[in-house]
């Protein structure tokens, strides 16, 4: 089973699925079990050497009396393959015990030692270096905090809109959700997205956009607050469930706050007067439609021209600082430098 380290950035696996379960022991617990196994095996070897001490000869003792200290010493140097040759087995039974019992114990202890050293030292250092290497290359990327139903839909829409999956980082505390994110080709980060350390590991400081899907309004507010403190320039959007919390989340730093309950009510009301209206709205906001509503900066050749003559599609709104200008308003007769244009454009195919 591949070990997982909290906060590890990972890329999608290329192998097939595997049935897995959470680890039953912590790393320290696993280490304690391994030490216990080694001590038990050493105890077996020590018992054999002590109870059959007449079968061993000490070259440094004229009386050839093997003490308990001698048995401990011989067990240690035998299992560790040091073998100074001062104590040796001389009877067939002692030699068979060393060959058939102590030798397998020696091999097992060494394999256990090497496996432990690899897992706790080599592999951990490698994963830590790999994590930093991947993190260092992240820039102008998208962070999705929470990979529930809403977060999953957000990632799918980003990919459908042509965003490179390797520019998307999903943060979730659930290992299974992180694995699900990796399966669609994006990068995953297992951890608490409300913590500064976790968001910094996802390089929120260089992110282009942050999407908060906390599941709870207070969690979304904390996600937004943390992200805004670490990156004052990122575009931050959040989903909430209660309209009472919309202003709170905006004050926390969100540029856009979406309430699916209120939005759903608006759509239901529009559907009551005509089913085609809702279909067209869905067309505008999803990559699967025939047209799409986009937001873009004004081009140099458009400055001074009326909004109606701009773009390849249908320009419908100007954002000028904090002012919103509709296509029917007199101010839409001349586009200024720094304006943001909302435009409906056809999708290829």
From TrEMBL:
Alphabetized Pfam families for the sequence: Ion_trans_2, TrkA_N
SUPFAM superfamilies: NAD(P)-binding Rossmann-fold domains (SSF51735), Voltage-gated potassium channels (SSF81324)
Compartment(s): Cell membrane
Record-level GO BP terms: monoatomic ion transmembrane transport; potassium ion transport
Ranges that cross the membrane: 31-51, 71-91, 103-122
Keywords annotated in UniProt: Ion channel, Ion transport, Membrane, Transmembrane, Transmembrane helix, Transport
Topology class, membrane: Multi-pass membrane protein
RCK N-terminal domain: residues covered: 139-258
Main subcellular localisation: membrane
Cellular component, GO annotation: plasma membrane
Designated name of the protein: Voltage-gated potassium channel
Organism name: Sphingosinicella soli
